Each structure stands twice: as C-alpha cells, then as structure tokens.
Amino acid sequence: MALNQAGISAPQIAVFINRHKSTVNLWIKRSEGNGCILKDNVRSGRPPIFTDLSQIKITAFFCQTNPLPGCNSITLKWASEYFNQDLSFLGRTISPSSISRILRKHSLRPHLHKYFLQITDPDFFEILPTIINLYLNPPKYLFSFDECPGIQALRKLAPPLPTGSGKSGGKYSDPNYNRNGTRDLYAFLDINTGVVFGKCTENHKVETLIEIFREHVLSLPEKSVIH
Fold first, then answer.
1. What does the alpha-carbon distance between residue 143 and residue 129 come to, in Å, rounded to a whole number?
2. Same domain, 113 and 99
3. Would residue 162 count as lying in a domain?
4. Final residue in a domain of this structure, among 85, 113, 137
5. C-alpha–C-alpha distance, residues 112 and 108, integer Å
6. Is 209 contained in some domain?
7. Which of 101, 121, 126, 195 falls between 20 and 30 A from 12, CA-CA?
8. Are 65 and 83 within one domain?
9. DSSP 141
C-alpha cells in the first residue's frame, strides 16, 4: 500500500515484493475501497469453534505448565482429559485432534521438546485475558522493558572455511576466540509502533539502570502518561 501511495506502478511493486501482478492489483483495489485495512473479506463456511483466546490458552498451557500428575510428559490425550474436567477453562470440551491442529497451526510440537525453564506463576491464566487486552488495545505510551546483561564480545581467531565440494553450504568453524569483555543491553519496546529504544552499558549497577530509565522518559513529550 505504501509503494502504491508513493506512485509506483503495480508491475514494479510485484517485482519488488516477489508476488504476482494480479495479487498486487487485488490488494490495491481493496485498499481503495476500504482504506489500508489489510484483512481478508468475510468468507462462507462454518465459524471457528475455538476462539483466538481459547487457542492462546491451549498454547500457553503447553508452553508454561509442568507435566500433568501421573504422566511423564504432557500428551494430547492427557491434556484433552484435563481440559474436559473443568469446562470453565475453554468453555467447551475439546478432543486430542483439535489440540493437535491448534498446536500445528503455531508450529508447536511439545511432545518433542523438554523445557529446562518453567514459568510457575499460579495466576498466569487469570491475568492472561487482561494482558492480551492490553496488547490489543494499548494506551499511547505503553512499553515493554527487558535487559540482557553479560553479553560477551568475542572475536574468532580464524574465519570460517568451506567444507569443500559435495557439501553445499557447509563450513568449518574455528572454536578458538579472544574475549573482549562484556556489555549489558537494555531495551524498551514501544508496543504501538514497534520502535525499540536500546542502549549498551559497561556495567549493571542500579545507578546505570536508573539513568537509562530517566533518559527514556525524557525522550517522550512532557506530561505523558507512561505505562
């Protein structure tokens, strides 16, 4: 849509984004009638049984909880029985095949993975709808903050070498490197725009953290309500 508004022709746009010209014309025509609303038209067929919130709950269940009592790992069969014992969780019963389809939709295969970190917040599912609503309807100045301390600055002693003919794309990598100290990374993500305010520092002191927060707040308009 941005390229079309800039006056670039449909054939040029098709080449640039690697799509067929008819696809480009379809979305240009749709945007002229509905504005820049990039959504598919309403289609016929049976409405979805499980809402987006239900699918998020199922995904979160497999990613956040410990294995169910009495089984070695969270399986589709045990998860289905667990959900069906308390219908308040999803609002209806669910079969193992439905759980499988939802997980495949998000490219998740929990039966092949074991997590070494577990989030054990007992209020996770209670606050889940509130957090989702906050992201769907964010206030003007909503930010997520995270830090990554102790990032090592490493320099390989030798560049990677190709493995030779017959092994396309393979490379030999030298395991030896020089350490060049560490850095701490702090970042604020603007939920509305996706813009990231980041900064690297040499230490992880309280004074440094306070200064980074102060710098971020001062970069916003005065009297802004920040979340």
1. 18
2. yes
3. no
4. 137
5. 9
6. yes
7. 195
8. yes
9. B
Packing angle between helix 96-105 and helix 76-85, nearest 10 degrees?
A: 110
Question: Which among 47-51, 100-104, 120-124, 159-163 has the top mean pLDDT?
Answer: 100-104
CA of 211: how far to CAs of 114, 188, 216, in Å?
39, 14, 9
Neighbours of 176 (CB within 10 A): 7
Count of H helices and E strands in the chain? 8, 5
Q: State the pLDDT at residue 71.
A: 53
Give yes or no for a contact between 76 and 33, defined as CB atoms under 8 angstroms apart: no
223 burial type by CB count under 10 A (0-12 exposed, 13-18 middle, 19+ buried): exposed
Higher pLDDT, 163 or 154: 154
How large is the average pLDDT for residues 139-145? 92
pLDDT value for 66: 59
Rounded (10°) angle between helices 96-105 and 52-64 = 90
3-state DSSP assignment of residue 85: helix
Instruction: Give the residue-averaged pLDDT of 41-45.
Output: 69
**H-type alpha helices, 73-158:** 76-85, 96-105, 124-136
**Whole domain around residue 209: which residue ranges?**
140-153+179-227
Domain match, 67 and 130 both: yes
Nearest CA-CA partner of 188 in 143, 127, 125: 143
Q: 64 near 119, Cβ under 8 Å?
A: yes
Express each pLDDT in 100-120 by its tens digit: 888 888 888 766 665 555 556
Same domain? For 28 and 109 the reply is: no
Place 186 in a pLDDT band, splitting at 50, 70 and 90.
Answer: very high
